[in-house]
## 1
Amino acid sequence: MSVGTETPQQRDRARTIFEQGAAGRRAFVCPEIDVPTVDAETLLPARHRRAAPARLPEVSEPELVRHYVRLSKRNFDLDSGFYPLGSCTMKHNPRLHERVAALPGHARLHPLQDLPRAQGALELMWNLQQALAEIAGLPHVSLQPSAGSHGELAGVLLTRAFHEDRGETRSKVLTPDTAHGTNPATVTMAGLQVVALATNPDGGIDLDDLRAKADGDVACLMLTNPNTLGIFDPNIAEIAEIVHGVGATLYYDGANLNAIMGLSRPGDMGFDIVHFNLHKSFTQPHGGGGPGSGPIAVSERIAPYLPVPVVVRDADGRFALDHDRLKSIGRLRGFHGNYGCFVRAYAYIRSLGAEGLRDASETAVLNANYLLARLRELGVADRLPLAYGDLCMHEFVLSGGPMKRELQIRTLDLAKRLLDFGFHPPTVYFPLLVEEALMVEPTETETRETLDAFAEAIAEILREAAEDPEIARTAPHTTPVRRLDEVGAAKRPVIRQSL
Ligand SMILES: Cc1ncc(COP(=O)(O)O)c(C=O)c1O
């Protein structure tokens, strides 16, 4: 082959699956059906059918396999590299969980299976509820919500039902200015009004601002603790007292639970409602890799309003679904939740045990502080100082402000250049109150060598930028696609190929 000739792989890389294959080519041919069938008209009347069959790719099995393998290699994933995406807890997903979730008894269970034949699944859900109640320090759990944000919606609706049951209509929800965007979005979706709370110089809630805004019209305070700055608010007992003092509830956004599992419990801090992100703290492939799950745990006074159905166990040890709850806010979704996530989370909790969960959190906090110390040791802190505090919990937020002024590269440039060093970028430009924010969450499943290599890559990018900022500004250079038009992708997405 002469130099410069396009290889078959390069040619295929440039073609979509629709441009490959040939008419009549198949990956797999089913045997003729040899049992009586229903005719097409009965299955789907002609008025609902297309005049011509849909144009689908016609490819051989190797073409099909290569297509998907090629696509999978064009992405960056947790199994190929360090993924310190702050606030997302991208920890390793043990393969044992995948095997357990794939067992036919779990994977093939139909959501409408009659309950006497689904006792094992109900028992798993019930056991998971008990474990989550223990971890949260709150007695009642609903597994229904499908994501953290869905858990938030459940929590705000529960709060509204709680106040309405007392004959009160409260319209405001307090959210700190460090809150994840889903918190205010949820409040607005639930028809309530967002009131932002200021952050004090230590990165916690400004208590004076809280006292000034806490009144009889406040339904709830939504709080993440540790918050999105990676800081545990030491004033939590006083915050709970102020909030409860005006008759409002305290909601715990559990996205950062990975810092405190088995060490402190939101229920003991005074929270009434907690959501878990099973896909983060309890390991699941997530972030485009799989579905999420956002169970909630609540105190006695909130329990009457929980979504239906609730998994219950009777005196004989039989499991059932309780739909008969007069004050319930109703159903939040079809069926009973993302069952595969329950299996994986339960496998994780059972395989680690109480001590193992505590150890995971302690190691997550240690890893984050080790990385922070290593960055300081490498002289990175002048250009990328820690935004708040001195130590951190399981993640930390650096400010790229000095880097931007002194080296003329932005946090986005640094993030993109990290891809060339084989690392997924940390979260950027969040939380909003930090200039040029870079939010790093290493998790407990990374080795010291990986953390060292990441710190050295950041130091190297800053050194390189001091000589030639253009390298970072035009990064990434080694990925299948270069710098993307992210604003264009968000505002004018082309999500459908025209055929
Ligand atoms: C602090 C915080 N709260 C809430 C959420 C929402 O969780 P989910 O993405 O599961 O809806 C996230 C997600 O990243 C988060 O980081």
## 2
Amino acid sequence: MPSRRAFLTTGGAAVAALVLPTALGGCSGNGLFVRGGNNSSENSAGTLLRSEAPLPEPFQVPLPILPVLEPVRGEDGTDHYEIVQRAERMEILPGLSTEIWGYNGLFPGPTIVSRRGRRTVVTHRNELTVPVVVHLHGGRTAPEHDGYPTDLILPMGGDHSAHQQHAGASVVGSRDYVYELDQPAATLWYHDHRMDFTGPQVYRGLAGFHLIRDDEEEALPLPRGEREVPLMIADRSFASDGAFQYPSVDPSLNGTPGVTAEYMSGVLGDCILVNGAPWPVLAVSDTRYRFRILNASNARRYRLRLEGGGPFVQIGSDLGLLAEPTAHEAIDIAQAERFDVIIDFSGHDVGDEITMVNDHGRDGTDLVMRFVVTRRESDDSAIPDQLVELERLSEEDVVAERQFVFARGGAEAHGMTLWTVNGEPFSTDAIAARPRLSTVERWTIRALNVEHPFHIHLAPFQVLNTGGKDDAGPYNQGWKDTVNLDNGGQAELLIRFDGYRGRYVLHCHNLEHEDMMMMANFEVV
Ligand SMILES: [Cu+2]
């Protein structure tokens, strides 16, 4: 009996051979592997969806500074927050109105700032027309609060019979998510994780930052205050009336899931938003700034570089500060990855412009945002040579090894071959791994057919090596929860299963792949 999804047409998914790269014949034939449009891959799995609306000239609008959410109350070591998920209208393109789905009606959502050692409780109320699920990406969270894809918050007052196929722990209207956050200072983010519909729901705006602070970080002389700026980069496409354009099979998001066949590899927009604004500008002083860069795009990967400035000095990875700062001329960032960086504008004169570009893009997607030095200020910040003590996992600690292949094949629906993990489409019932609590395992992840960023909930990892090389490469230092895999790529990870027993998911963070079954359960036992 199928345990999930109207999407699968048969009880036993039709078994297809794993589609190997050699079988693709260079993107020909069925149209499912058109990448980037006009044969331009832009180094990302996906198809470019061109906007119908005219896009603005870059660097015309100020970078939105994201509001920090105030707790409604704080008591007994717990801070309580309330968020209402609702539709709202925003002027993203000049003169046009875009309906977004936002946390408190905002895109991006408000930033939550938590303190290590204090519990954070967030009450989410769903005033949208569809079920939602909230996942705190990077959080060391108990399984019942992790946002398992079928643990839905159903909309109030709707007919929920269509959603009863999912036997998750669903509630109507609202629920609390409890985050203990016993983990180091880091840049986390929260976003929708609804079964089958994560791609369109994040695309409509359900994403926000959640920062964790601790004493160790606070003791460092890093830039702070208005010189500490989260940057959420996301590509979007716009219809002629300004609406977000996304190729859902059923745009109500209450029926058949998935995207039309042409976009099965991923949806790439042609307008680059930072904090919800197209190619914005930030006025800066001639000082150091700390930017927490998140790639919140569904399918797009970026190679960020600073034209007229640089380098990026990386101080943190997905899950916290590095042992020591590392300078990069460019940063490769896959979906869901975070890079915590310092950019030093002190060598610049007033009037200088520094442009963040994307070397993987073209025709507009090669631009991201601009910094303009508008004033001189004093600066007492510094980048210490040593940041934090970083525990390094050792291969001697490994108690088990596993291999996961992320590829296309193993199941079909509507005549399309789905994305799978080890040849299996996602099922709520199947457990792909049962690691023991407080142990370390070595996992080898392989990506076939196209690029796949691997993400695992709960369990932080360190990258041993990628691409058959001896080391992790320049972008995989420190603790991570997501790793960028090229087409044909491979990574060896040391993963620690710490914190909680229970069932969690691992998946590809190309959201179209995730929605089309590229996800698996693991259970910490
Ligand atoms: Cu993928």
